From TrEMBL:
<dbReference type="GO" id="GO:0005829">
    <property type="term" value="C:cytosol"/>
</dbReference>
<protein>
    <submittedName>
        <fullName>Glycolipid transfer protein</fullName>
    </submittedName>
</protein>
<dbReference type="Pfam" id="PF08718">
    <property type="entry name" value="GLTP"/>
</dbReference>
<dbReference type="InterPro" id="IPR036497">
    <property type="entry name" value="GLTP_sf"/>
</dbReference>
<dbReference type="GO" id="GO:0016020">
    <property type="term" value="C:membrane"/>
</dbReference>
<feature type="domain" description="Glycolipid transfer protein">
    <location>
        <begin position="28"/>
        <end position="171"/>
    </location>
</feature>
<dbReference type="GO" id="GO:1902388">
    <property type="term" value="F:ceramide 1-phosphate transfer activity"/>
</dbReference>
<dbReference type="GO" id="GO:1902387">
    <property type="term" value="F:ceramide 1-phosphate binding"/>
</dbReference>
<dbReference type="InterPro" id="IPR014830">
    <property type="entry name" value="Glycolipid_transfer_prot_dom"/>
</dbReference>
Amino acid sequence: MEDEDRWLLKAVKAFEGCKEELESSGGIDLEAYVRALELIPLVFDSLGSVFGFAKKDIQDKAKHILASCSGKGKTIKEAVGEDFKAGRALAGRDPEAVSRPLHRITNSLKFLNLLLKDTLREGNEEHLRVSAQKAFKESIEYYLEWVVKKAVAAGMYLLPSREAFLKKIGETEESARGPAIRLVEVTEPILSHVYGIYEDLGIEL
């Protein structure tokens, strides 16, 4: 597979762009960030049908946010701040509100970060589901309905092996390690920045 076709390298490039902007200007363009997040559904696809809900959720919420912000040049901080001032930071269906859906899909980025970090942890010989369970519990589980949580818990036993998962995203453990480490490293300051915006405004989602 050519480098330009490798999902991991595409993701690294997209989020590196966000990180570079953060370092140079102190903010991240909302549209560029959401475009980078649109790469994540492939991971959920590769994990199997148990994460079908997460794939649909990120696609629907990304579409909603882009319909609201496309071409406006707003940073994440500006967009969330506008929602906060307008009293719509907790709104989920307001066509102008982006804070709630943005927080949800940022949780998907956190899931990806935690999944890669644990999956490729040195000496980790556990099945992929162990890493996926940890990542799920620490990122997106808390806001799901009980029925969905139970379905995901049961479906974890159907997850592919680590080798099969990496093959689905066009990698081997050897080829994935370097880019995966880079992706974890570049997304951590991004996650801190985005979650920090909500914390500073006292928005709890």
